[in-house]
């Protein structure tokens, strides 16, 4: 792992792509050993069964054919798991984000997704609809813990949508998406697969439309470690994350709550992705 004094710098090409397209993939940002540490940490949690308040799976019988109930996502693992917190504020990730934001980044949220075979996907959406960052937006860092492609439900992105306003979602097709929200695509948009190798990290703007389709593979998980970040000048955030921001040194920062309903006038209690 790079020392604190060694800055991980973006190439001019990647900077340009992020500005113009709203996303980039940095190949091999994490080593195979680091990916293994993340994978084994979360698979050990799954093996042990229940982590109250964070990981509460049901039996196969209770799941009734829904794999995501047997392997539910874990929200905010950085609050209780040292490995999650370590990689959330990894210096390489924070260096990339500082270049994108033009200022130091603050980690706002972490998640781990198992997405076993047979799992539904997540309909197209925008992250800042949920984080409600003011001013500006958030940036996601989506780390592949397995090789991902469209066969096992890898992510897709819609280039150039980072310039859009936040869209009001409609009800998604729940046979394809476990997530209720879906946004429409602007005319002429194209959906691009973000196929990745384990250790690759996809960074994307909080307004960039993205999502995933079901994991149709027979035996491949599509595990991922996902964190959301905001710039240090952020003044307001959604009430579920406003008081738990971490700087690159692990110090906790608090900002004001963005009160009231979401941008479409609906009160929101959950978490994105």
Automatic annotation (TrEMBL):
GO MF entries: 2-oxoglutarate-dependent dioxygenase activity; iron ion binding
Source domain of life: Bacteria
Keywords of the record: Dioxygenase, Oxidoreductase
Protein name in UniProt: Phytanoyl-CoA dioxygenase family protein
Source organism: Paenibacillus antri
